[in-house]
C-alpha cells in the first residue's frame, strides 16, 4: 500500500499558506491516485463546504459522496443543492443504505437510533461507505485535530485500518476560526443550522445545539456513551 511518506515524506507548510497545506495535500492525492480511485465523503457541514471549495481548485470534477441516511435535516439537503449550483462540474452522489427507515424499523424496531445508535450508524453510514470504497484506493475526509479529543491524533495522510484504504485529511490543522474566515472571505454557502448553535450537524434525531464553551462535537448523541458514528475508528498514522 502506497504511503504518504513514500511519496513526499514529512509535509511542512508555510505559515503564510492560507490553506495550511491543504492544497498541497490535495495536489499530491490527485497526482498519486486517478480521480476515479478517490472520493471525498462529505457531511456538508462548514468544514465540508470549505474542503469542497479547495478540492475544486485541484480537480473540478472530483467525486463527492454523501451518506443519505434519510434522517438528515432539510437544511442539509438545501446546502447540497446550493453546492451543486455553485460547482456544476463536481460529481455529487447520494449514497443510500440498504434498508429504508421503515424497513429498518420493521427489522430492528422503531427508533433504533435511541436504543442502539451505534447499530443505526453502522447500517445507515458505515456499511454504505464500505461498499462505496470497495473499488477505491483512498478517500478524503474533513476531519480536524481541533474537533475533539478523539481526532487530535489525525495527520494529513492516515492508514485507515477499518476500510483498508488511505485516508486523506487536508484540513487537519485548521482551526474553527480559520474555517469560518475562509468561508466568509470566499462567500461560500453553508448550512443555516450553524447559525442556530449547531457546530456539528448529523442526523436530526442525534444532533443537538451546543453551548459556546462546549466541545464542537458535544451536540452529537448527547447523553449517550458515543463520540463517533463509526466511520473514523481505527485510524492511525501511515
UniProtKB/TrEMBL annotation:
The active site is at 229 (nucleophile). It is found in: Cytoplasm. Its EC number is 1.8.4.10. Gene3D superfamilies: HUPs (3.40.50.620). Its main location: cytoplasm. CDD domains: PAPS_reductase. [4Fe-4S] cluster binds at residues 120-121, 203, 206. NCBIfam families: APS_reductase, cysH, PRK02090.1. Its cofactor is [4Fe-4S] cluster. SUPFAM superfamilies: Adenine nucleotide alpha hydrolases-like. Binds 1 [4Fe-4S] cluster per subunit. Coiled coil: none annotated. Pfam families: PAPS_reduct (PF01507). Catalyzes the formation of sulfite from adenosine 5'-phosphosulfate (APS) using thioredoxin as an electron donor. It catalyses: [thioredoxin]-disulfide + sulfite + AMP + 2 H(+) = adenosine 5'-phosphosulfate + [thioredoxin]-dithiol. This is Adenosine 5'-phosphosulfate reductase. Belongs to the PAPS reductase family. CysH subfamily. It comes from Bacillus carboniphilus. GO terms for molecular function: phosphoadenylyl-sulfate reductase (thioredoxin) activity. It is an enzyme of class 1 (oxidoreductase). Keywords: Cytoplasm, Iron, Iron-sulfur, Metal-binding, Oxidoreductase. Residues 38-209 form the Phosphoadenosine phosphosulphate reductase domain. It comes from the Bacteria. Pathway: Sulfur metabolism; hydrogen sulfide biosynthesis; sulfite from sulfate.
